[in-house]
Design brief:
The protein has about 290 residues and is of the alpha/beta class. The chain is about 45% helix and about 25% strand. Strands 4-3-5-10-6-9-7-8 form an 8-stranded mixed sheet, sandwiched between helices. The protein has a two-stranded antiparallel ribbon with strand order 1-2.
């Protein structure tokens, strides 16, 4: 089992096709097949279930994905650390959609200008998904928000993660123009919340603010885009929770109104013990922003 074989396995696991994985990697399909067979012989189990030309990950294969990611991440981390950061390294970051849109462009542009030999990778998702990807080694760090409850702090400890406040966001409940007279949550007439899928902290906070657990009339319309959410609110009959920093970028019609939900920290979260030069450069840059 070597790092190149692990990369091939992860590519096949992603594509679920030898042919497509071979095209993506620039290899012959026969070579990909041989490497997968050798890996399965090495670990002693089938990693894929093959049915004709179709293939899916076996139960063992699904579990092996996280180990393959961890092994490759550990190898990259070791190379980066023992060279003192001279090779630049790779920093795999996760982020909520809102932070990626409103906060990261300037930050990452500055980072790249200072550390041009460091490769930056960014993927977005809801907080719970980002925390799981940190736990499994898919990500090195992530910008996420946690509900202001003791349970969330316990969750970080359980996942062996630590966090540092990066920014504060004002959260606003966006209302359609037909509800311009609303001054408090009890006066809201709409009964549809437009939000990201489960696992999004802002969705959870919106549900609590609206008292949805006590009101069966409410329903949730799941959408994966802030622009689409704002458009739905503009069309009437629904509300959404949006950070003020995102609203400033979105060109929201002046006819829409807002209610303040409160202030929440955006946290930079990482695995305990993760201490490589590329990550330290990010921490230093965030510290500069606070000066």
């Amino acid at each position: 089992m070597d790092s190149e074989t692990l990369r091939i396995f992860l590519c096949v696991a992603s594509e679920l096709s030898i042919t497509q994985a071979a095209a993506r990697l620039g290899r012959a399909p026969s070579n990909i097949t041989t490497r997968i067979q050798q890996l399965e012989a090495d670990v002693g189990v089938e990693l894929f279930v093959r049915t004709g030309k179709r293939m899916v990950l076996s139960v063992a294969g699904e579990g092996f994905v996280s180990y393959a990611n961890k092994l490759l991440a550990l190898e990259a981390e070791a190379r980066h650390v023992i060279t003192g950061g001279r090779d630049g390294g790779l920093l795999r970051m996760g982020s909520m959609e809102s932070t990626a849109a409103s906060r990261l462009p300037a930050l990452l542009a500055t980072y790249h200008a200072r550390h041009t030999n460091t490769s930056l990778q960014l993927r977005t998702g809801p907080t719970r998904a980002l925390l799981e990807q940190l736990r499994t080694g898919v990500l090195d760090c992530a910008f996420a928000a946690l509900s202001p409850t003791a349970e969330e702090g316990v969750l970080l400890d359980e996942l062996a993660l630590q966090a540092l406040p990066a920014w504060q966001e004002e959260l606003l409940l966006l209302l359609p123009s037909s509800e311009s007279d609303v001054k408090q949550v009890a006066d809201i007439r709409a009964r549809t919340l437009v939000a990201f899928p489960l696992g999004c902290t802002y969705r959870s906070m919106a549900e609590q603010f609206l008292g949805m657990a006590e009101s069966p009339e409410w329903r949730v319309l799941e959408i994966a885009s802030y622009h689409a959410m704002i458009a739905c609110v503009a069309a009437g009959n629904c509300v959404t929770l949006v950070p003020a920093s995102v609203l400033k970028l979105a060109g929201v019609p002046h006819s829409l109104t807002t209610l303040s939900v409160g202030i929440v920290d955006t946290l930079l979260v990482w695995r305990k013990g993760y201490d490589v030069p590329a990550f330290q450069h990010l921490l230093a840059l965030l510290a500069e922003e606070k000066l």
